[in-house]
Structures are given as C-alpha cells and as structure tokens.
Design goal:
CATH architecture of the largest domain: 2-Layer Sandwich
Radius of gyration: 37 Å
Largest sheet: 5 strands, antiparallel
CATH topology of the largest domain: Heat Shock Protein 90
CATH class of the largest domain: Alpha Beta
Number of domains: 3
Strand content: 15-25%
Strand order of the largest sheet: 2-1-5-4-3
Number of helices: 13
C-alpha cells in the first residue's frame, strides 16, 4: 500500500506537463522565455508542496486520530452503560457518517446489537449472527479485511454489501463482540478506513474496561456499606448504652472503662470494616464486644474460650468476621438452664486457614438455617450472609462460611479463608 494515493502522482505529473507546455508556448509566441520558465517552475513547486502537504502520511494519520477521538468523545456517554443494544445502536449511528462505509454493525458473541446503514431491515436488533466472518473474528480474535460477499460468508447472495472490515472487541483477552464496517465495493477499503475501524475498536475496548472498573468500584462501595450496616446492630447499640448508663450510678469506675472500650469498638468498626488485620486484632475486637454483653447479662451467663495457635496470631484476616458470629451466638443461643459457652478455635488445614465459633446454646432450627445467608435477614443482627460474601469476594468461591447446628445442643460456624501469610 502506497504512502499516498497513486492518483495524486498522476495528477501531479499532468499538471507539471501542462505548466511546462504553457511555459514553452509563452517562450515561442512572445519570446519571454525567462518569465515563462520562472512562472511555470514556481507554480509547479507550489502545486507540488500543496498536494504533498495535503496527502502527507503524517497529516493523514493526524486527521484519522482527530476523527477517532472526536467520535470517542461523542459516543463515550453511551458506552458508560456498557456494551448493550442502546449503546451499540447509538455508536453505529454516530460512526456511519464519519466513514466511507455503507453500513456499520456491532454484535456481541451471539446476536446483532447495533446496525446502521443500508440493508438495516435485513439485520434487525437481536437477530443471530449471519456471517461466517463474524464468527471467525470472535473465534480467532483477529481483524479481517474481506473483499467479496462469498468471503464475508453471507448466507444468501441477495446483498449489496460486498466488502467488510471486521474488528473483534477484546476484553480480558477474550472477544466479547465485533465492530464491522460494510462496503458496496472492496475499492472503498483503504488505509484510512482500516485505521479508523481498528482505532475506534481500541477506544471502545478502553471505554468498556473503564465501565467494568466503575462497576467493580460501585460493588466495593456497596459491599462496604452493607458491611457497616451489618456490623452496627442498633439493638446492640441501644442495649450497651443503657448498660453503661445504669452502671454510672452503681459502678462509675466500670462505666468509664466500658465507655472507653465502647468508643474503641466503634472507631474500629467505622475505620477498618474492609481492611485486613491480624487475627490477634480481630480476637481483641471480639473480646471487647463480649465485654459489653457480659456487663449486660452478667459474668455467670456467658463465657468465652479462645484457642488460637501463636503461629496464627499474626496471620492477616478480614476485619469483623469473628465478632458477628459471637454476636449471633449471644443473641440467638442464650438459654435459661445454664450459662452459654462460646469457643473460638483456629487451625490450618492443607494450607488453608479455618476459624470456628462454637456454642452450646439452644441451636438453630433447620428451616431457619436455610435462610441464614439471605442478606434480607441481616437487619436482625445475624449478619452471616455478609461475612460469607466478604470471604468469597476476597478469597474466591472455595472460601466462605458453613453452619452446623442442632436444636438443644448448639451451633458451630466454620470460616474457610485462604492461604494468607501474616
């Protein structure tokens, strides 16, 4: 492919010949050979510079880049919603007048989601992919330049679209769709059209990546908000404040200690809800919480035993994964005939950290266990679904929370984390 169109060379040569003929005519008829030669030379140089400047490869690429960026700016508001029917259709509509193409189309991996130009009625939105070229581009993740209807792979011959540029749209090293420029003739496909198709496809990929990152950021924000909601149990807050208020009259010294611990507890809750902390810190936060419940119910109603190996104490874990389980045990396991015993144990099984919270309380009925991971129940203070969701988001689907319970005997909740090094 030449650096500029061959027609320009021919035109330039013709102009030079005409100017030379004019100069010779001036010399022969009027004798002003010097003036005629100078004028012809000056005009030839001027035309040469204008043509070369207009079709200079650097300038052509600059104009292509400017066009692509302008189109990207126009379509960005639509691509913020991701690759869907609405955004794809608008992109096709904006691209068509900016190209030499007779039709512009976008598909996902299965169907047409955008089409503008001739034969639009033959390619309705939602119709399955028709051409083998599109399926090949999705499979091979490679741009294709096609010069006939047969090569494109139309299922029938009744089409005016005889040439195409097919560019896969790639996200995370996988083709999620294609951008297609269709032409009546392969002569319409040149370096400019190819650069425009590939350049805009690249920008679409970048816009889709930004959309995905924005979705992940919003999801993280929602998870953080849900975590804070689940951790701050309004009933616990109300009961603890009432307990401290009562102790101010009966035991002011203890009330002051509890008030300081209460401030530390909620500062940690608000500041570190999505951070990784040491298992030792998580244990301390849990003991701080239980101190409020012991003050409320009495030391003879609740006991807590921790068996965490020293080598695991500095292991990093998500904050607030044990305290909600202890809170659940206190809130739903207390019994009248004997004190509630809670045991916290930790161990590494096949390189994976596991933490268990076991109580000998009243247990949980089977029908209740089936709904304990439902986020809609988190307002009751159970918060198990929140803990399970956080573990899976951090460590994958193999992580999470498992509940074993039997009425009258107690409950065991096991946390499976991941191979975290502390």
């Amino acid at each position: 492919m030449k650096r500029y169109p061959p027609l320009i060379d021919i035109l330039l040569l013709v102009l030079l010949v005409l100017l030379l003929a004019a100069a010779i005519t001036t010399i022969v008829t009027e004798g002003h050979w010097l003036i005629g030669l100078l004028v012809a030379t000056a005009m030839a140089i001027l035309i040469f510079l204008i043509v070369r400047s207009t079709f200079d490869p650097v300038r052509l690429r600059a104009r292509q880049s400017e066009l692509i960026l302008r189109l990207a700016t126009q379509t960005l508001p639509y691509m913020r919603s991701g690759l869907n029917v609405s955004s794809a259709q608008e992109v096709c509509r904006q691209l068509l007048p900016a190209t030499m193409a007779n039709a512009v189309a976008i598909t996902d991996r299965e169907s047409v989601i955008g089409f503008a130009g001739i034969e639009k009625d033959a390619h309705p939105i939602g119709s399955p992919i028709m051409t083998t070229a599109t399926l090949t581009a999705l499979r091979d993740v490679q741009t294709q330049v096609l010069g006939s209807a047969d090569v494109i792979g139309w299922p029938t011959d009744s089409t005016d679209l005889k040439a195409a540029i097919v560019v896969p749209l790639v996200l995370r090293e996988e083709a999620i769709g294609v951008l297609k420029f269709y032409y009546r003739s392969p002569k319409s496909i040149d370096e400019t059209q190819l650069a425009l198709a590939q350049g805009f496809a690249t920008l679409m990929e970048q816009q889709l990546q930004l959309f995905e990152l924005e979705q992940q950021r919003e999801l993280a924000t929602q998870m953080r908000f849900k975590a804070l909601q689940a951790q701050i149990n309004p009933h616990f807050l109300f009961n603890t404040i009432n307990t401290i208020a009562a102790l101010i009259r009966t035991n002011p010294a203890r009330a002051r200690i509890l008030l300081r611990e209460f401030a530390k507890f909620y500062r940690s809750t608000l500041e570190g809800s999505m951070d990784l902390i040491t298992l030792e810190q998580e244990q301390a936060q849990t003991l701080r919480y239980l101190g409020f419940e012991i003050a409320r119910f009495g030391e003879d109603r609740v006991t807590l035993n921790c068996d965490i190996p020293a080598e695991m104490s500095q292991m990093l874990v998500p904050s607030f994964i044990i305290q909600p389980l202890v809170e659940n045990a206190v809130g739903h396991g207390m019994r009248n005939d004997k004190p509630l015993r809670i045991d916290i144990t930790a161990e590494v099984v096949d390189g994976v950290a596991q933490i268990a919270v076991t109580d000998d309380g009243i247990g949980i009925a089977k029908d209740v266990q089936q709904h304990m991971m439902d986020p809609a129940r988190e307002h009751s203070g159970i918060a198990l679904g929140n803990v399970d969701e956080r573990l899976r988001s951090l460590f994958g689907d193999n992580a999470g929370l498992a509940v074993q319970s039997e009425l009258g005997k107690g409950t065991r909740v096991t946390l499976t984390l991941g191979p975290i090094n502390g």
